[in-house]
Design a protein that fits this description.
Elements: H1 2-5, H2 9-12, H3 18-28, E1 33-37, H4 57-69, E2 72-76, H5 81-88, E3 99-103, E4 108-111, E5 116-118, H6 126-140, E6 146-149, E7 154-157, H7 164-181, E8 185-189, E9 192-196, H8 202-213, E10 217-222, H9 228-239, E11 244-249, E12 263-265, H10 267-286
Helix pairs in contact: 4-10, 6-7, 8-9
Bound molecules: magnesium ion.
Magnesium ion binds next to loops.
Organism: Naumannella halotolerans
Cofactor: Mg(2+)
Function: Removes the phosphate from trehalose 6-phosphate to produce free trehalose.
């Protein structure tokens, strides 16, 4: 049957290139395929206060469908694993046992199969970093700049700042200096800068999961600079014979992923629509 081999690429809006073969490979062997997704900005709309973020309801529904079909569905996020599981309602999904959350760029993990979290102790020096960041934010004194305590990392958010431009100018260089002084790294994002321990990124997290699960084809979607190492890993895996499709969740704030993506969606609502298309096609083939 011809339509089993060739999905309707126009509907999936896949750019000509390696993403085409990857989509076919996922559809032909879902049990050995991985779907990896970032959380904020990809599944969950970006909002003023990150603690109030929720997964897009259609995104949750699509994940629910896909977790029944695909061998592995992974959320790979800068969020603590616990926060992603709770905000995404992931433990309640039908295929939760096939879900994995790699939190804090892979330093933390939740396994849907066991329901267990693996959370290492906070890194040395994090208390001093938090103190220094608090002092910096107090000193700069721009209303609306907030500090997020992620226990392994400290986020400085200026989405709600009274003067975002002044906030970035006043904060970024000095936050970098604090990070350097304590041998931490920085992760810039959409109206946020995170100071976090070096040594892990989303690319490494993805590589480990691919090896562990014996993945043969994959899809990865993200929206921000922290997703670029995962993009690089997908490209590296292609060269090793594991086809991969890259989704970008586009926003006016960040365009670094767009040129490299095989599929460009405009924010979490469109990502959810695309994931439903994938689920539709997998359901059709399983019927
Ligand atoms: Mg994101």
């Amino acid at each position: 049957m011809v339509d089993q081999i060739a999905p309707d690429l126009e509907r999936f809006a896949v750019r000509p290139g390696p993403g085409v073969a990857a989509l076919s490979a996922v559809l032909e062997d879902p049990a050995n395929s991985l779907l990896g997704l970032d959380f904020d900005g990809t599944l969950s709309p970006i909002i003023d206060r990150p603690e109030n973020a929720v997964i897009h309801p259609e995104g949750a529904r699509a994940l629910d469908r896909l977790s029944r079909r695909l061998g592995t569905v992974a959320i790979i996020t800068g969020r603590p694993a616990r926060a992603a599981v709770e905000l995404g309602g992931l433990a309640q999904l039908a295929g939760a046992e096939r879900m994995v959350v790699l939190g804090q760029y892979g330093a933390e993990r939740w396994d849907g199969a066991s329901g267990e979290f693996t959370i290492p102790p906070p890194p040395e020096g994090i208390a001093q970093v938090r103190e220094a960041v608090t002092a910096l934010v107090d000193e700069v004194g721009i209303p609306g700049v907030t500090i997020e305590n992620k226990f392994r990392a400290i986020g400085i958010h200026w989405r709600t700042a009274a003067d975002p431009q002044r906030a970035t100018a006043a904060l970024i260089e000095r936050a970098r200096a604090i990070a350097a002084e304590h041998d931490f790294g920085v992760e810039p994002g959409r109206s946020v800068l995170e100071i976090r321990p070096p040594g892990k990124d989303k690319g490494m997290a993805l590589a480990e999961l691919i090896a562990e699960r014996g993945v043969r084809a994959q899809i990865f979607g993200g929206d921000d600079l922290g997703d670029l190492p995962a993009y690089d890993e997908v490209v590296r895996q292609r060269a090793l014979g594991i086809p991969g499709l890259l989704i970008a969740s586009a926003s006016p704030e960040q365009n670094a992923l767009l040129e490299r993506a095989d599929v460009v969606c405009h924010g979490p609502a469109e990502v959810a629509t695309w994931l439903h298309l994938l689920a539709d096609e997998l359901d059709r083939r399983a019927a």
